[in-house]
């Protein structure tokens, strides 16, 4: 071939390309509408009534049913992948996540991240990058923000290590700072239509719930879900991207599956408003059967009528294996896929 | 683990939990919009023009294209699963089904069932439960109703058998009671755009039609479809739910696939308005190739301009095997998946 | 069985059923809305900003984001299958394709084809049929038109060969005749949100771009995509339709996948406006990993503010194999799936 060949494609950023204070304006804003809403219900066994019925949402003081809170998370997250995690070795953690405004059909979401920490690893080959990401809608309102840190490869092993900056992150989002959607009220909440009678007062700290049901996941499903959020990480799509030919399932797919399964026992944990922490403990692959269990970590009151906050640990496992997170070595057991710590809103 | 564990999940009802006259208000109302409409066309080779084109529907006197009649059925049915068939051994039959009003994008559907019959089986382990289910929209109009009976396990084998009540069900919905959508007229029907020239008068009672085409079904597809209708029965999703590790395909998936395939020969059977009977004759599994044939069982006139009713038997088979339902033993042949008896509307 | 059996199904047209001048009014008009838009993003890794965000589209002078240009193509094409390619042996080529008006959510598309050429093959068993297909919206505006030719079987080998008519087709759509969507302007184009800085002036004729990423395709995905466009060709759905039991992936699925992958390097080639030529070089099957590369074939100016036209060759390959189309024998190499020649619009 004599034709000229050029390189116009995005190789992704490497560790030495990040400096504290950098602002990354992520590309490809996305308008989400009724189609994305229906697809969420097709991809996950989602049944929380507030996200299923306009009339139920109206009975809770909202104009109509917002998109699932995790749609906001996935779209905002997906936009950051080309700039944050294309060369990531691992997605290490989340903190200080808050949902600040519902996402309505017709909203357009975009994402902006600020680098808030960098720390080279002692092996000299990789480093940890901390970013605070904001998702904004077409009115420039922040619909959610969260901190995420990832391990990223260095391009040039000889590049000097930056001065380490590790942000001081809250272990838990202070419930007093949770944003309650404008107008939300559970004063007239219909427990029958919601599917379960259990209210905020019925849950005790330390209580554990086995969500019983399992879903065996397929390649086509997780790829369609991941594409829908415009997440482009190769490992999810290309059997040539990992040495063993498997396609790694996007961690957010496991989050959504586990959250949807948690309806059975937590049908009234209607809205997610805070993300305290999260670990993708082990890889999930097609053919795995995802089960889930939850633990009540804390409870808090809110100013909204009839609305309480509940802090939950949501654990996804491969197969039905409830209530044990770690082995004697202190590490996650091999069947644990996800350990997520979040705040939800529930009727008092 | 020292944490307190509780049971807040839904174990489903068992045979002894049903009594004639019980009213079950099913949970999780669902707003269906344009997304569900598009998904129906993605999941099934649906081509009936009235459900495909707003302009075609307007040419038939409707304000725009309603959601497929089977979307209404699947959503209404799906809501009943947690209360009716979570512990069901088998879905035994349908009767007296009528579509009473079209479902428009934006409608919210919910379901209510009344127990109209119970009869313990002679083995003492199971019983048959008959329910009449109504699907209602946000205006509290009934959009469809039907009777369904299922075989349900007993929780406690020592529970006393209830007095048997077996409802007297019509073998066929009287065509005089079929509900014709308000405004429907086939007086200006466009046979070219509909795809076939055959009108009501061209079909003869006893006539059989081989719909020719086949579709090989995949796990990802049937699970997505079943989830979309918020049907939560474990056997459809979890390879651990059945002894042989297979996932049983929701019977409604087979109904929709066969109905869509029947376009080829019945393109003008535009709307389903009555469900006379139905049997899921054999289980359908991923990898099966679904074919379909139909038989004209009856014909009737209606009051709407240019609109006739046609009673059809729709048979789905595994592989291409038309026109034989039962073996010499009187049982369904092993390749028969579905035997459905319904009324549709067709231009005169 | 004693019941009467009839043949009301569509056997498709054979070579001798086509005559130059025949007009085929294809059936089943289709209203496309927001659901189809979301599905496109789920099925393909599509990220061109103009089709992703209403606000981005408004920044380009459009009222909101139109459906992807290939949605128009697939829907218009799908309608023609029952009349043009049900008995086709091969889809041989495309020419003179132009997108004449954007398709907006809510539009209803239908297709009409005129036979513009017929030529029996020397084997006497098949012939080539040339059709010019128009896609029209509900206002009877032509949204796109293109020429396609297919090899079709004869029903009756003894039918006389028609006088051969081979239309004189342009090798390339004259860029002066490309239709620029009304109002389109790239004068205020936001390269950051679009995802790449490369403008029309940065691309050189002869330049080749490796789009890097690959997607391994699944049966469920290609069948859902193909059904969504109401394309009914058996070979895509039925493992019994081809001798080896494989399901052939619809060529348009490969086009959309490759076009979406080309975002990485051609993020600013926002809209497709012309189809010069196209060959489905080799069959694509589930399990194949699709990669893509492009070559800049030509460039042209337009009258719209800030808008240039770029002529691109888009090549899809099985596995990562850039920049070689043909072997020493002049035939497409076995890994080449698609060779498409099109015009796109790009900011100057």
Automatic annotation (TrEMBL), chains A, B, C:
Cited Pfam families: MC_hydratase
Protein name: MaoC family dehydratase
InterPro entries the record matches: HotDog_dom_sf, MC_hydratase, MCH/BMMD, Thiol_ester_hydratase_Rv0216
GO MF annotation, one: lyase activity
PANTHER family tied to this protein: BETA-METHYLMALYL-COA DEHYDRATASE, MONOAMINE OXIDASE-RELATED
Species of provenance: Sedimentitalea arenosa
CDD domains, per the entry: FkbR2
């Amino acid at each position: 071939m004599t034709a000229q060949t050029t390189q116009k494609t995005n190789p992704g950023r490497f560790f030495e390309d990040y400096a504290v204070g950098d602002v990354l304006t992520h590309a490809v804003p996305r308008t989400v509408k009724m189609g994305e809403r229906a697809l969420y219900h097709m991809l996950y066994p989602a049944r929380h009534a507030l996200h299923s019925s306009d009339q139920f949402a109206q009975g809770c003081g909202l104009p109509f049913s917002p998109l699932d809170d995790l749609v906001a998370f996935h779209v905002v997250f997906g936009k950051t992948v080309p700039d944050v995690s294309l060369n990531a070795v691992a997605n290490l953690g989340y903190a200080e996540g808050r949902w600040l405004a519902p996402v309505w059909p017709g909203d357009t979401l975009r994402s902006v991240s600020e680098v808030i920490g960098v720390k080279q690893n002692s092996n000299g080959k990789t480093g940890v990058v901390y970013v605070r990401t904001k998702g904004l809608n077409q009115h420039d309102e922040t619909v959610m923000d969260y901190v995420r840190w990832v391990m990223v490869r260095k391009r040039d092993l000889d590049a000097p290590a930056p001065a380490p900056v590790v942000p001081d992150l809250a272990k838990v989002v202070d419930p007093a700072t949770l944003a309650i959607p404008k107008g939300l009220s559970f004063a007239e909440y219909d427990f029958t239509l919601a599917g379960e009678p259990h209210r905020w007062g019925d849950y005790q700290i330390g209580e554990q719930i086995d969500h019983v049901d399992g879903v065996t996941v397929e390649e086509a499903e997780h790829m369609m879900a991941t594409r829908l959020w415009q997440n482009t990480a190769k490992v999810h799509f290309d059997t040539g991207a990992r040495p063993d030919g498997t396609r790694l399932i996007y961690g957010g797919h496991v989050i959504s599956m586990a959250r949807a399964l948690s309806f059975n026992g937590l049908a009234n944990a209607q809205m997610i408003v805070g993300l305290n922490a999260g670990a993708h403990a082990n890889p999930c692959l097609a053919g795995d059967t995802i089960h889930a269990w939850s633990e009540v970590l804390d409870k808090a009151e809110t100013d909204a009528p009839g609305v309480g906050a509940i802090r939950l640990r949501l654990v996804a496992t491969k197969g039905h294996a409830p209530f044990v997170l770690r082995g004697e070595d202190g590490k996650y057991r091999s069947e644990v896929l996800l350990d997520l710590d979040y705040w939800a809103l529930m009727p008092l």
